[in-house]
Amino acid sequence: MTNRQQFNRWSALLLLSFVTLLSSASSQAQKKGKYVCDEEQPANMCNATNTCGSPSSACTIDITRGSDSANVKPSIPDAKDNQLFCIKAGTTVVWMSSNKNNGFMVSFGTDSPFDPDDPIRGGGKKQVTTKAVTPGCYKYDAGAFRSGTVYGMSGGSKPELIILP
Q1: Collapsing DSSP states into helix, strand and coil, what is residue 160?
Q2: 3-class SS shares of the chain: helix, strand, coil, % to 5
Q3: Can you tell me the distance from the alpha carbon of 9 to that of 78, in angstroms, rounded to the nearest whole number?
Q4: Peptide bond into 116 cis (omega under 30)
Q5: CB contact at 8 A, 13 and 107
Q6: What is the distance in angstroms between the CA of the first residue and the CA of the last residue of the chain?
Q7: Which tens digit of pLDDT belongs to each residue from 51-109?
Q8: Residue 148: left if φ>0, alpha if ψ -120 to 50, beta else—which one?
Q9: Quick one: which H or E segment has residue 23?
Q10: What's the rounded Cα separation, in Å, for the pair 25 and 30?
Q11: Apex CA 57: angle with CA 55 and CA 62, to 5°?
């Protein structure tokens, strides 16, 4: 019986150690921000594979309605919905939706890096052209909706983008 009790104690101690280690690792992971814009040098995340357009060629951003969120995808090869992307200051940006009956709205709050600095509202038949002007890292709200439906608004998404100098 003592061997069994000793085994149970060691098992409990091992389990407790594992749980402590796991919770410590989890708390360390939570200290790191979930947003790139919370990092010290977010512009270091920019490279040729995630930079859209240039001052001489426009960046087109397609906003579509997903099943539960708005999807923002820049015109970059192999781009994924709502991924971080970068734009060089001076680049013309065309916001559009490839879905015919969708509308969209993009808002940067009071600190929009684009000119004009109003919320960006458009749809399948209305592209909106802006110019990237203010370098920095930006979180923004994007929403998409389907015309003529009562419950057509998708949940918003909170993607990020970086305007490079």
Answers
A1: strand
A2: 20, 35, 40
A3: 53
A4: yes
A5: no
A6: 73
A7: 999 989 999 999 998 877 889 999 999 999 999 999 999 999 999 999 888 899 999 98
A8: left
A9: helix 2-31
A10: 9
A11: 110
